[in-house]
Amino acid sequence: MVKHIFLIGFMGCGKSSVGKRLSYLLKQPYVDTDDRIEEKEGKKITQIFADEGEEYFRQQETEVIKGLFDAKQPYVVSVGGGLVLREKNRRIIRKQGICIYLRATANTLYERLKRDTQRPLLQVEDPKARIESLLEERSAIYESCADRIVDVDGLDLPQVAELVRRAFEDEKAARRQRRMETEEIQNRSEQRKNGKQILVMHGPNLNFLGIREPEIYGTASYDDLVAYIQREAEERGLMVSFFQSNHEGALIDRIQEAYRDHTDGIIINPGALTHYSYALHDALASVDQIKKIEVHLSDITKREGFRAQSVTKAACQAQIYGKGFAGYADALDQMMTLLGFEKNS
Ligand code: DQA
Which of 296, 306, 307, 342 is deepest in the core (most CB within 10 A)? Predict the structure, then answer.
């Protein structure tokens, strides 16, 4: 879809002159909705208003911007001051491009328009009061329709054109970024749809993280660890669930349940059971369709001698230790490889 740039704002805010300059800067052709209508009708807008009425004119405006759907290249479009007052027109604009509001105060507008006799809505006794009341009616609509706002008071044409150009580029970049983020989320939910389930298990005393031996395990709690793993999993588009128990049998029961609920991967920190639980080893070994990674917060090879040995490790595809919380992020990465996922980053 061709992305036009639409300039909106009250009459006299500089849409036409800024639009022409922008057309030159961006090398995009320029169109003014008022000019298009005048050309098509063969008369001035004041005359169209007088002959056919405002409603007819508004209908012509809709036709002009609808016609831009067929454009072969992006245009700079200067939009009549009242065009965006119609919800339908706002929708058409939103679908086709980026909308920038040239915002001016009533004073600035009055100074620019006071000698203008071509604006049907201002041919009244007190044009300043008319500008103020129209602006009050319209400014919220202009603002809500705009992707970006440029304040034009006190600025000359080249300054405004430059600000608009930058606003346009910024908006394009922001949209690109949003698109990439959306695609990433879609990719992740694709992976979720694959339904891979990872169970993170913790054995005895790990619920006491933050309380137990902080000089070894740190001050962060078990809940902090769960939140950390959850975040890391989300970043990778993975679904994780958690289980912690201080009881060997409960851990074994949960591993057997994992077999029945078709869990794809288990990341397990068995705590001290690591060093002596053949029963836990057997439970892990009996579910060989589930990928398993053993994790320890501390470096079990550099502590008391009994910790250096892991009887559960033989039933797992990998073992990670000594990296604190980060060991679980590594485990998620390794699990993705084991499960045949492409990494996101
Ligand atoms: C631990 C190391 C084990 O030796 C100890 O019994 C634990 C925690 C770790 O994460 O470093 O409970 O598994």
Answer: 296
Among the atoms of ligand 1, which is closest to the Cα of residue 206? 12
H or E element that contains 294 = strand 291-296
pLDDT tens-digit readout, 266-301: 999 999 999 999 999 999 999 999 999 999 999 999
Residue 217 falls in the annotated catalytic set? yes
Task: Tell me if 234 sits within 8 A of 166, measured CB to CB.
Answer: no
- The C-alpha atoms of residue 6 and residue 19 are separated, in whole angstroms, by 9
Of 263, 231, 261, 229, nearest to 331 by C-alpha is 229
Q: How many domains does the chain have?
A: 2
Please pick, among 217, 222, 321, 328, the residue that the annotation labels catalytic.
Answer: 217
- Beta partners for residue 148, in sequence order: 100
Q: What is the CA radius of gyration of the chain?
A: 33
From the list 4, 281, 296, 328, the catalytic residue is: 296
Checking if the pLDDT of 2 tops 60, the result is no
Distant-in-sequence, close-in-space partners of 62: CB < 8 Å, separation ≥ 6: 86, 88, 89, 92
Q: Is the pLDDT of residue 345 over 50?
A: no
Tokens of 333: 């990465």
* Together in a domain, 176 and 209: no
Same domain, 73 and 176: yes
Q: The domain containing residue 113 runs over which residues?
A: 4-185
Q: Are residues 49 and 162 in the same domain?
A: yes
Q: Phi/psi of residue 141, each to 5°?
A: -70, -45
pLDDT at residue 46 in the model: 87
Instruction: Answer whether residue 345 is part of any domain.
Output: no
Whole-angstrom CA distances from 137 to 82, 151, 231 are 11, 18, 46
Q: Does any domain span residue 155? A: yes
Q: What is the layout of strands, in order, in the sheet containing 197-202?
A: 239-244, 197-202, 265-269, 291-296, 318-321
298/345: higher pLDDT: 298
What would the pLDDT profile of 35-83 be if each residue is shown by its tens digit?
999 999 999 988 999 999 989 999 999 999 999 999 999 999 999 988 9
Whether the pTM exceeds 0.70: the reply is no
